[in-house]
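Protein folds are increasingly written down as discrete tokens. With that in mind, we are printing a sequence and the tokens encoding its fold.
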Amino acid sequence: MIGLDFTRSTEAAEDALRSAIQDVMRAIPGATLVQAGPDLVGLTAMAEIFGFSRQNMRKYATGAGAGKAAFPAPAHLGEPSLWHLAEIVAWLRSNTGVQPRDDVFEVSKAAAKINFETEQQRVGRILALA
């Protein structure tokens, strides 16, 4: 497995992500996309993205921080628990004075969409085995 980071300039975040994925698929025939990011993130990654301390992010997640509505439920509950970054950005914007950058929101939404499509394909392959 390899992880790659890209810097792209396009009008739409989804175009940048899809273009990067296509370039990798051309460069590495037979490569399989496991996950596009940033999408699923833990508290530490969230804190880094938003410029918070991990403790501050944990306060939001446990309900001890400011917020009009409950913090979003994790997409994966475990060690560590993981959340969809786009949901956290939207929650912060609606429930706190924190206004994460638009590019973080757009890229995280695009990554979530691509990951959903990838998972749909995976489930289709699994169901075809039955």
